[in-house]
Amino acid sequence: MKVGFIGLGIMGSRMAANLQQAGHELVVYNRTQQKADKLVEQGATKAGTPEEVAKACRLVITMLSTPDAVEEVAFGNDGFMKALPGNSLWVNCSTVNPSFTIKMAHQAKKMGQRYLDAPVSGSLVPAEKGELIFLIGGDAADLEQVQELFNVMGKETVHVGAHGQGASMKMVNNMMLAQAMASFAEALKLGTALGISEEKLCETLLGGPAAAPFLNLKKDKILKREFSPQFPLEWAHKDLHLASVTAYEQNVALPSLQATKELYAQAKEKGFGEEDLAAIYRLFLSEEK
Ligand code: NAP
Description:
This protein is of the alpha/beta class. Helix content is about 50%, strand content about 15%.
């Protein structure tokens, strides 16, 4: 299948590489152009703008950081939407909020195009191994058209419901994820204050039922103080912010979400934003003060 792929960061670069290895023809765009080089060496066509991608493809996947980035790439001066042939399909894998997603789906429809929200669960390693979980909002027929691609990039596809529902599931997932990470960091803080070693705490807590399974993947980062990004902390903060906006829109109070969001804001203020989300623990380390 010929696929336009826009956004070759931590996740997008690996997802696109898997599509390429499975034999799909790629037209790629990334704002920082060098990030496309490896895919281009392997046969992908490099586009100079998002608009150029749309001139070559009827199917575009975006994997971008924030709603603003998505809007700019889709509808900005060089945006791809205006150049797509009619009845093309835009698959947005970026983590964005449900109301924004619904707005994108409506705008696409007004322009005679189709849209799927397709955010993913899983980080750098699952992206590399083709083991992501796709959370889909949109029409079943559109999903069917691209299921083959999701099967290459992921191990499971959940059709949650109509437009916005994939983004909604992703929002509640990441709200739990960021809070579990912060809660674990606080547990380590209290446990070490009580004289238990970090190693013993990790071994005991991560083997027990109270810890979220993904925390096992963060153990080495914490013990070795190695915080290279798999899921950048700044995107966890972004997701907490988007969950907060969503809670406001839904008239729902989420007090612990708000407190956790500010913890991530503090970590960003300290310069940990581009590190892995596990770097939230750095807030609690005495040598960091
Ligand atoms: P990343 O490595 O920071 O990549 C972000 C991408 O967005 C890059 O291609 C970046 O281009 C592009 N971008 C940002 N602002 C832009 C703009 N104004 N115009 C054009 N391009 C722009 O992030 P990531 O980890 O791959 O995450 C991508 C999305 O997936 C985010 O929504 C994130 O929340 C979500 N997600 C991440 C993970 C994870 O574990 N990493 C897991 C699930 C979902 P440049 O290269 O030029 O900066």
